[in-house]
Amino acid sequence: MAKKGLLARKLGMTQMFNPDGTLSAVTVLEAGPCHVLGLRTPEKDGYTAARLAFGSVDAKKLTRPRAGEFKAAGIDAARHVVEVRDYDGVEAGQELTCGIFAEGELVDVTSTSKGKGFQGMVKRHRFGRGPETHGSMNVRKPGSIGATDAARVFKGVKMAGQMGNVRTTVQGLKVLRVDAERNLLMLHGGVPGAKGAVVMIRGSVKQKAGKK
Question: Pick from 87, 83, 107: which is nearest to 186 by CA?
Answer without folding.
Answer: 107
